[in-house]
Amino acid sequence: MKIGLIGTGWIGEEHVRRLSGRVSGAEVVAVSDIDPERAAAVAAPAGARVVATAEELIADPEVQAVVVTSWGPAHAGQVLACIEAGKPVFCEKPLTTEAADGLRILEAEQARGKRLVQVGFMRRYDAGYRAIKAVLDEGGIGAPLIAHCAHRNPTQPESYHSDKPMVDTAVHEIDVLRWLLGEEFASVQVVVPRSTSKRFPHLVDPQILLLETESGARVDVEVFVNCQYGYDIQCEIVGETGTVRLPDPAAPLVRSAARASTAVVQDFPSRFADAFDVELQEWVDSLRSGEPAGPSAWDGYAATVVTNAAVEARRTGAVVPVDLPEKPAFYK
Ligand code: NAD
Ligand code: ISE
C-alpha cells in the first residue's frame, strides 16, 4: 500500500516512522506540509517525496491511500478531497473540529457508496481498553452504571486554548466510552475548578466533563493538560456487580532511597505506542482486503457532536443536550 501523509508535525513524523518501519505491507511514498522544511526533514529518512500541497498529494497517481495528520481545522477539507478522489483516508482525531463539517463528510462518503474514512481513535486498539471491553461484553461487572476518567498531560503549548480540552483531548474519552458502553451520549455539562497557576492565564485548566448516556449511565472526565508530572490516562467503570479499571503501563517497582516508586509515562507516543502500531497495521490490512474496518466517519462525527455540545456547556454553564441524528443505515 503506497501511502501519502499530510502534516508532518509530531504525530505525522511518528506515523511516517511507524508506516515505514513497523507496519508490514505499507510504504510512505509522499508527504506534504505547509512547512516545506519540516516535510523535507520527515521525508528524508523514509525515502519519500515532498509534494508541495495537500491537494497535489491527494491527486498524486502513486498515492493509493492518505494519512491526514495536519491540524484539526484542516482535516475536513483534506478528508473531503480524498473522498472525491475515491482514495481511502486515515484521519487523526478529531475527524473535524465542527460537527457541520462532519455531516458533509458523512454525506460525501455515502454518495460515494463505499467506506473510505477511518478515524485515528487509537484507544480502541490499546490492550488495556480492549481487556475492559471484553469484561463488559461478557457481563463481568453487570450493567455499567458509572465511569470515572482522567486525561492528564504534563503541559500544553500557549496555542492550546480553553475549547481544546473538549475538542482535542476529551474527544478520546468520548469515543472510547461510546465504544465501551455501546451507546451514545445524551447530554453534557462542564464544571471548572480553580485553574492551575502553573500555566498560561488564558487557559481554563483543569475542566471536568459530566456526561450522561442515553440509558442514564454517568461518565465524569477530568481533563488536566498542565498537570506537570506526566501523561496519565485513568479509567474505571463501575457496574452493578463490580468494577473494572484500565491498567497503568507496565513499569518496574523501584525501591531506593527510602521510597518505592514506578515511573510515570511522559507523552502519548510512549503511552500508546503499541496501540498505534496495531491501529495502522489493521488499517493497512483492511484496505488490502476491502474497506477500512476501524472507527468510521460516523464515529468521528458522533464524537464531535459531543465535543461541540461540551464547548457550549462550558461557555453557558448549562447541561447541553447532545443532538445526534439517527445513525444512517450505511454505518450500521
Ligand atoms: P503538530 O502541530 O505537531 O503538527 C501538525 C502539522 O500539520 C504541522 O507540521 C503543520 O505545519 C501541519 N499543517 C497544518 N495545517 C496544514 C495544512 N492545511 N496542510 C498541510 N499541513 C498542515 O500537531 P500534532 O500534535 O502532530 O497533531 C496533529 C493531529 O494529530 C491533530 O489532529 C491532533 O489532534 C492529532 N493527534 C492525535 C494524537 C493521538 O493520541 N491520537 C496525538 C497527538 C496529535
Ligand atoms: C493530543 O492531540 C492527543 O491526541 C493526545 O493524546 C492528548 O493527550 C492531547 O491532549 C491532545 O492535545
Number of continuous helical runs: 10
Q: What does the overall shape look like? A: globular
Secondary structure tally: strands: 15
Q: What is the gyration radius calculated from CA atoms?
A: 20 Å
CATH superfamily of the largest domain: Dihydrodipicolinate Reductase, domain 2
Structural class per helix/strand content? alpha/beta
**Any idea of the CATH topology of the largest domain?**
Dihydrodipicolinate Reductase, domain 2
Helix content: 25-40%
Protein name: Inositol 2-dehydrogenase
Enzyme class: oxidoreductase
Keywords: NAD, Oxidoreductase
Domain Gfo/Idh/MocA-like oxidoreductase C-terminal: 133-322
At a glance:
With 332 residues, the chain is of the alpha/beta class. Helices cover 38% and strands 22% of the residues. The chain has two domains: 142 residues, Rossmann fold (3-Layer(aba) Sandwich); 172 residues, Dihydrodipicolinate Reductase, domain 2 (2-Layer Sandwich).
Architecture overview:
Keywords: NAD, Oxidoreductase. Involved in the oxidation of myo-inositol (MI) to 2-keto-myo-inositol (2KMI or 2-inosose). Its EC number is 1.1.1.18. By secondary structure, the chain is α/β, with parallel strands linked by helices. The chain is built from ten helices and 15 strands. Bound molecules: nicotinamide-adenine-dinucleotide and (2R,3S,4s,5R,6S)-2,3,4,5,6-pentahydroxycyclohexanone. The site of nicotinamide-adenine-dinucleotide has 24 residues, from helix 1 and helix 4. (2R,3S,4s,5R,6S)-2,3,4,5,6-pentahydroxycyclohexanone binds next to helix 7.
